[in-house]
Amino acid sequence: MKKSYEAGIIGGGIIGATIAYYLAKMGMKNIVLFDKSYYTSGSTGRCGGGIRQQWSTPANVKLGIRSVKLFEQYEKELDFNFDYVQKGYLILAFTDDEVMAFKKNVKMQRSLGLNVNFISKKEAQKIVPFLNTSDILGATYCPTDGLGSPFLSTFGYLKKARELGVETYNYTEILSIKKNKGKYDLKTSKGNVSVKYIVNAAGPWAKDISKMLDYDIPVNPERHQILVTEPLERMVDPMVIDFLHGFYGSQEKNGGFIMGEADPTEPESFKVSSNWKFLESISKKFTYLFPKFKDVKILRQWAGSYTVSPDAQPILGPISKEDENFFLAVGYSGHGFMLAPATGEAIAEWIIHGKPKTTDISHLTMERIEKGLFEQEHNVV
Ligand SMILES: Cc1cc2nc3c(=O)[nH]c(=O)nc-3n(C[C@H](O)[C@H](O)[C@H](O)COP(=O)(O)OP(=O)(O)OC[C@H]3O[C@@H](n4cnc5c(N)ncnc54)[C@H](O)[C@@H]3O)c2cc1C
Questions:
Q1: Which residue, by CA, sits nearest to atom 21 of ligand 1?
Q2: Does any ligand 1 atom lie closer than 6 A to the CB of residue 336?
Q3: pLDDT digit string (tens) for 177-213?
């Protein structure tokens, strides 16, 4: 480890990995990335792997569309396979209010260039023949949404970043941060380094990292549980989402159904344990939507943290005017994997060029939170 670096990234999940890669790709030298554990040990390695562009806020839609563009060129650019498939997302509407909101979303999403449609119950049934459509009024469908491996994609970004000169250190914890003559001194569990730019990409621990410089950022961890079934012959292509009952599920590459739920009773905490309540609740939701799969066996369940922001949009960019070189890439609220490429690229541009260029994220800062300029993202499970 050297004594000083241009940029120090805290976090070796998908967000830290993309930022490291894009900084190096854009020509920055002397970059270091730290993780207190193994890479993908945080939320990234607990993620469902869903990649969608159908959001209710224009900012999330733009980030989703750009991320899909970057995911589409990932394999060629990084010479690495991350099991990417584009088999669509089907979002079910059960109520008149949902129909109205979804039609409004589709209009906005289409105006931003997304190939998405509001479709009838009959069309939804055609796309997923095993789906119980008896109670739905329609659905939205975007064929370019998809799935990928959060593990492999992170490893690919880290591998390429290292080839471009980034130093990465796992099992190296950041213990404190002190400002020192326009730079930051990082005390790590393996020695001290000085950096010009810091990126806080610490996922559920982002609040603790910001506290090291006396900032209180409004992001909090919240447990989300998930499970996977035995592999079945391919019968369902898209990810199916049901906001009303709080369910998402899709058939993975190897045939297992991966699924999770929204539990409005879950308190903020670092808890990542699993429980029976989830198994019962998700089994009811799954077999209601897919009655034919009632005998499918569950292979394993686990849980992880969403890092929730006040409006379910990420908080990005400099933490304050006083600490313009302390960047946040936090608060992804359950959609950090799918928004990682676009936000990684934009944060790298912001650091190198003084502003984001490809996707405008300049309004997603802490300042918007301080001024109460929230735009609530509604399409979250
Ligand atoms: C059950 C579940 C399902 C999900 N499904 C999806 C999905 O389908 N699609 C999607 O887009 N998103 C999904 N998400 C959300 C997604 O996992 C996260 O948004 C994303 O992984 C955040 O990545 P990250 O790099 O910010 O955080 P993390 O992966 O948590 O990485 C942060 C890293 O920082 C390190 N760190 C923390 N403190 C320190 C320190 N002091 N010193 C050094 N290192 C430190 C940690 O060890 C950790 O590895 C899901 C999440 C869960 C829990």
A1: 44
A2: yes
A3: 999 999 999 999 999 999 999 999 999 999 999 999 9
314 lines ligand 1 (CB under 6 A): no
What pTM does this model have? 0.98
The continuous run of DSSP H or E covering 369 comes out as: helix 366-370
How many CB atoms lie under 10 A from the CB of residue 253? 15
Three-class DSSP category at 230: strand
Q: Could you give all domains of the chain from N- to C-terminal order, each with its CATH number?
A: 4-47+150-219+311-370 (3.50.50.60), 84-145+220-306 (3.30.9.10)
**With the C-alpha atoms ordered 271, 272, 278, 279, is the resulting torsion angle positive or negative?**
negative
Ligand 1 center from residue 42 Cα (angstroms): 5
* 310-328 pLDDT tens trace: 999 999 999 999 999 999 9
Cβ–ligand 1 contact at 62 (below 6 Å)? no
Helix (H) or strand (E) holding 179: strand 174-180
- For the chain, what is the total number of helices (H) and then of strands (E)? 9, 18
